[in-house]
Write a structure and sequence with these properties.
Blueprint: E1 4-7, H1 8-24, H2 28-40, H3 44-63, E2 73-81, E3 84-87, H4 92-104, E4 116-117, E5 124-125, E6 133-139, E7 144-151, H5 153-156, E8 160-164, H6 170-180, E9 189-197, H7 199-209, H8 216-222, H9 227-240, E10 255-265, E11 270-277, E12 283-288, E13 317-320, H10 326-329, E14 337-346, H11 349-360, E15 373-375, H12 403-409, E16 414-417, H13 423-431, E17 435-438, H14 444-448, E18 451-458, E19 467-481, H15 488-498
Parallel strand pairs: 1-3, 2-6, 9-10, 13-14, 14-15, 15-16, 16-17
Antiparallel strand pairs: 2-7, 4-5, 7-12, 8-11, 9-11, 14-19, 17-19, 18-19
């Protein structure tokens, strides 16, 4: 029987190259679908967000820097031909982890380490983004087929699962679930749906479906060829009719494609899983056949549309952060675009938790937050003459539990993140006449160009979750919640949902 020998160094090098490649290249089919969404978008706010994402995509591709600061947890689906042998005494997990380690620690383009070990107690960063999430299957043949993706926390945190009754409506469940996801998954993106098998199989099916080529544009042009096509089209139209839009600001495109994978299941069961992929969709597939490491081909330069975002200086208000007062913040309007310049503090979950502990213990804080603005971000390390690497916003709802403390006890007057805030947090913002601003998720490299200086000012041991002070110039943000408690994540989708026609529900 023929045996193909895969050298350990070839597998390691291929995975290292793959995680680098996907950090700065969108898949070609994703760019095509995103471009079409931009062309047909009518919501000014959503169109501006899409322009930032497309411009960021081109900048990242040409600059070989991450499109998103959250360079994700690496997922590897590996189909191993039964005629293959690996030239190594290490486990496949160990080999793949070494590839991830080398890829993430690449000095020319270091990627953010986001994985923490001991998920319950210490949650200590592994510093090299290992381990990866490895799924293996044995198939006939003499090759190894790999699909490597990087999944950010914002979209992964919006995964949902339900054990439906066989007679329950899949469509109803999806249409009830998507609005609950909010904008933390950075739409527009892809929805992966798994139906059948067992609970764990349904989740795996949903994740696998996100690796399939995007073909919604073809499906819309040619029409459905099967019942599954009909269901995908129906969900695509119904979800976009919700009006959630890019970044949850209201608009015509919430999803670019809906993928569905199924598997036989128990007669009493209907397991259903839904996992979104965000505006920083990143994956690549390749084959190893024993002849050496893979050579990945970059997308052609003409893949990107002629879209180059620039701030609208006529409609945007310039804000000097170094002279900002609570009275000025109270005058901002929902949906207003701002260009921020001056000194900005950063902080995420771990920093907020530590601040909470220090206040509870009566300890002085290492940073004075009086009349300051905090940016929820965990940046990528800089290279060359960069002040900081890609530095897009993280999901703000994770900081909701700390908002009263920060606004009421530290002197903080505004916050920057992505996605909506919870109802209680909106009331807290209203109570303190503060404001919540959003930067575009999926435009991290573009946003980082506004950051001129960066230094760690507290909690250095937290790595990317330390408190930095950024000096920014014309950093683009939008007022998402104003001092009166009005939220664009409520008003925007409501406006565009009214303007879409009613569609009948498909009875499945």
């Amino acid at each position: 029987m023929k045996t193909t020998i895969i050298k350990a160094e070839d597998l390691i090098q291929s995975i290292a190259d793959a995680v680098q490649y996907i950090s700065y290249y969108h898949p070609t089919d994703f760019i095509e679908h995103l471009s079409q969404a931009y062309d047909r978008e009518e919501s000014p706010a959503a169109r501006d967000a899409l322009a930032q994402i497309l411009s960021n995509s081109r900048m990242s591709a040409f600059g070989h820097r991450p499109m998103c600061q959250d360079t994700g947890v690496v997922n590897i689906f590996m189909e191993i031909g039964m005629g293959v042998r690996f030239d190594s005494d290490l486990s496949l997990q160990a080999l793949c982890d070494e590839g991830v380690r080398q890829g993430y620690l690449n000095a020319d383009n270091p990627l953010r380490a986001s994985v923490v070990a001991d998920p319950i107690f210490e949650r200590k960063n592994t510093r090299d983004n290992t381990p990866c999430m490895l799924q293996i299957s044995l198939v006939p043949g003499h090759q190894v087929h790999l699909h490597v993706s990087a999944k950010g926390g914002g979209s992964e945190n919006k995964a949902h699962f339900a054990m439906l009754n066989p007679s329950d409506s899949l469509v109803d469940w999806v249409l009830e679930t998507v609005p609950q996801m909010g904008a933390g998954w950075c739409p527009p993106g892809i929805l992966g749906i798994g139906v059948g098998g067992s609970a764990d199989k349904a989740m795996l099916l949903a994740k696998e479906s996100l690796s399939e080529p995007l073909d919604m544009l073809d499906l819309l042009a040619k029409g459905p060829q099967s019942k599954l096509d009909e269901l995908r089209l129906h969900l695509y139209e119904r979800i976009n009719a919700l009006g959630i839009g890019a970044q949850g600001l209201g608009g015509l495109s919430t999803v670019l494609d809906v993928k569905i994978k199924t598997f036989p299941t128990h007669a009493a069961s209907k397991p259903v899983a839904l996992i979104p992929n965000c505006a920083a969709t990143r994956h690549v597939e390749f084959v190893l056949d024993g002849t050496g490491p893979v050579e990945l081909t970059p997308p052609a330069p003409e893949t990107w549309p002629d879209v180059e975002w620039a701030p609208d200086e006529q409609k945007s208000q310039r804000v000097n952060l170094d002279e900002l007062t609570p009275e000025q913040v109270a005058q901002w309007q929902p949906g207003q675009t701002l260009l921020l310049s001056g000194r900005l503090l950063t902080g995420r979950d771990a920093a907020h938790k530590r601040i909470q502990q220090m206040l509870a213990n009566g300890e002085p804080l290492p940073v004075d937050f009086t009349n300051r603005v905090i940016y929820y971000v965990g940046p990528v390390d800089p290279v060359g003459d960069e002040a900081v690497g890609p530095a897009g916003p993280t999901t703000a709802t994770r900081m909701d539990a700390f908002t009263e403390m920060m606004l009421g006890e530290t002197g903080l007057i505004a916050m920057i993140g992505k996605a909506e805030r919870g109802p209680q947090t909106v009331e807290t913002i209203k109570k303190h006449q503060s404001a919540y601003l959003i930067a575009v998720g999926g435009a991290a490299y573009l946003v980082s160009k506004a950051i001129r200086k960066a230094r760690v000012v507290a909690f250095e041991d937290l790595g990317m979750e330390a408190i930095y002070e950024f000096e920014v110039h014309d950093m683009p943000v939008t007022v998402a919640v104003d001092g009166r408690g009005e939220s664009v994540h409520v008003s925007g989708p409501a406006q565009w949902r009214k303007e879409t026609p009613d569609l009948p529900i498909m009875p499945v």
